[in-house]
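Please review this one:
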Amino acid sequence: MWQVLACGAVVFPGLFFAFRKVLPTVFKHWTDADVVLVSERLVSSIHALMATTAGVVIVSSCRGNIIYDRHWLTTYFVIWYGVPYMTYDIFAMYLSHYYRYHVKGHEDYKQHSLRTVNSFVRREFLLVLHHIALLTILLPITLFFRKDQGDFFIGCLFLTELSTPFVSLGKILIQLSLQDCWLHKANGGMVLVTFFVCRIALFPFMYWMYGRHYAIPIYGVPFHLPLATNLGSSCILAPQVYWFVLLCRKGYRLYRRSRVPPSPPDAAAGPKED
């Protein structure tokens, strides 16, 4: 068991610290905050690609009987990489938060302390809660309470990570001062599409698949499932809807900004004196 956990516990922190060593040699003008942010995003994208690949394999292998079909990757990916990654990512997010304020010279961020940790938890409460919930809810369900059923649905949950590389790419493009290029605009569209499809529409799809298996209409599925299952789905879905609304608002602001014509240089400079 410990050897399995050590696999992800070595891979993700190892990649993070490797990127922290390599990036400053390529981008010499970057601050510690820049390096930590991009390193975190790169590792996050790697994990997301791994989780999405695992999800595709599991879903395609278990679609014959979505309740009883099994795939060994379901349990092992959660243990090998899911739990270590979520634990690592909380630490990486804290470091990104710390250095963002440290490089600005904030008095409280001259060194790590309980105050900086408390500030991080308050500012990133929803993300921290999301990670802790996955560690304390998804892991026990995957390992102990499923009665070897529902690998298909665990695979579907892995697919929620498909949007993460696009979110990370957007942050990296901004870091590279490429926020006005066509790639950033196209990536923004992919963020909205993949986030909606894989993090919101995925839940009605899973309910529909369950209803099709038992030959019941989709509106009857919630009454066919245990209350805990519906509550768990709602708890996972609710923050996704909140984040999607924030993404839409940000996208709309960027769209409006791009439609505003730039001011002429002479007008911006003001009238010249003779």
Observations:
- The chain has twelve helices and no strands.
- Residues 227-259 form the longest helix (33 residues).
